[in-house]
Amino acid sequence: MTTLATIKEKVHAGQRLSEDDALALYASNDLLAIGELAAWVNEQKNGANVYFNVNRHINPTNVCVNRCAFCAFSRTADADDAYTLAMDQMVGRAVEAVGQGATEVHLVGGLHPDLTFEFYLELLRDIRISAPSLHIKAFTAVEIDYFAQISQLTVEQVLAQLIEAGLGSMPGGGAEILVEEVRQKICPEKISGQRWLEVHRLAHHAGLKTNATMLYGHVETAADRVRHMALLRELQDQTGGFQVFIPLAWQPENSPLKLDTKGTSGLDDLKTLAIARLFLDNFPHLKAYWIMLGEKIAQVALAFGVDDLDGTVVEEKIGHDAGAASPQSLTLERLIRLIKVAGKTPVERDTLYNQLRSF
Ligand code: V47
Ligand code: SF4
User: Fold this and answer.
1) Whose CA is nearest to atom 2 of ligand 2?
2) Is 359 annotated as a binding residue?
3) Which domain, by its residues, includes 214?
4) CATH of the domain at 343
5) Domain contains 273
6) Where does [4Fe-4S] cluster bind (predicted)?
């Protein structure tokens, strides 16, 4: 029988936790003990630093050929509120972001049936020319795979052309839960979990750093979450290309998936973050994405093993279309205050976790 005491011993001895250990943590009600252990591990890795960046999200289009059941963002091309931004609108937003101190643009969107791969290459080139100081973090593994399909290129070739055009790193979206039975229920049209991992493996081989997410709080079990994290940990052992793990609390409004939930509980959010910190021993960073968690839980998460709060964001659609109650943007001052009040050191980072300034 795995007990919290034996897990604690293992963690203090630097031993890796098993999937059974992680399940035992999920079964435990001792949230504070789990959090304290996760905070200790985080302290060894990151000291008192809490990272954030100044960034701006741009979602080129909400038109998507997939119909993921949990998603309230995607539209069919003929829907009244379908949109596709023009090239100059997107470049304009990137330039505006630089004026507001941003160092990163986060670019992800739907799988549009008519936009070409060339359109996306041009978008990267134009942003690079007009806003050369911005790091472009763009396109989930799902989009990369789609570009390969529509251009009849291999994923390796797609990545090489994107990098040449200005791609700096990849965000962690599209992972959902990597377990196939869960994907069949929530996103049957999406690439498989194995394909998601393969695209990230190829991105790491191409020299890109990438992030990894986990969408939780829908039909998945604790065992599915732990399997998901085990698959990420395995790939990270092989490539070392992941920077940060980001659990995404599912926002349940306006999507086709109707479940008897008003969203994840604060307890589940904190436990999930803490377990991730303990289980993913080879991930340097753990992000509490305040957009989905809300500012308050994200702040409390800083005492549960979290060392990153994402960024200022500006104009978030994916969570807000699904009812997220958080604001669309946080100012630099507010992020700094949130972190300071928690007794930590706010550190502005760039996308690749280089420290820019601390406060
Ligand atoms: O892949 C979709 C998720 C992801 C909902 O890498 C939802 O730094 C909650 O991946 N409720 C896209 N989540 C967002 C994403 C992300 C966000 C911030 C930072 C980074 C990073 C990545 O959002 C999708 C999907 O898993 N999602 N619908 C929803 N209703
Ligand atoms: Fe499309 Fe992404 Fe929404 Fe799925 S989650 S429907 S792939 S936009």
Assistant:
1) 110
2) no
3) 19-52+144-358
4) 3.20.20.70
5) yes
6) 64, 68, 71
Residues present in the chain in total: 359
Ligand 1 pocket: which residues have CB below 6 Å? Answer: 70-73, 140, 171-174, 176, 211, 213, 215, 246, 248, 250-251, 255, 289, 292, 310, 318-319, 322
Under a CB-based contact definition with an 8 Å cutoff, are residues 200 and 170 in contact? yes
Q: Which residue has the tokens 């003990």?
A: 33
Q: Which ligand is nearest to the CA of 190?
A: 2
The answer to whether the beta carbons of residues 279 and 229 sit under 8 Å apart is: yes
CA neighbor of 59 nearest in space, from 113, 114, 110 = 110
Helices assigned H by DSSP within the chain? 4-12, 19-27, 31-46, 87-99, 117-130, 141-151, 155-165, 180-186, 193-205, 222-239, 266-279, 290-293, 295-300, 332-341
3-state secondary structure 132-163: CCCEEEECCHHHHHHHHHHHCCCHHHHHHHHH
Residue at 172 is within a domain: yes
DSSP 103-130: -EEEE-----SS--HHHHHHHHHHHHHH
DSSP element (H, E) containing 242: strand 242-249
71 is in an annotated binding site: yes
Number of structural domains (the chain) is 1
Determine the Cα–Cα distance for residues 243 and 226; give it in Å rounded to an integer.
19
Q: What is the pLDDT of residues 162-182, one digit of tens each?
A: 999 999 999 999 999 999 999
Residue 125 within any structural domain of the chain: no
> How does pLDDT run across 200-252, given as a tens digit for each residue?
999 999 999 999 999 999 999 999 999 999 999 999 999 999 999 999 999 99
Buried b (16+ CB within 10 A) or exposed e, 23-52: bbbbebeebebbbebbbebbeeebebbbbb
Q: Is 187 labeled as ligand-binding?
A: no
ipTM of the prediction: 0.99
Answer yes or no: is 82 within a domain.
no
Sort strands 55-58 and 345-349 into parallel, antiparallel or unpaired. unpaired
- Indicate whether this model's pTM tops 0.90: yes
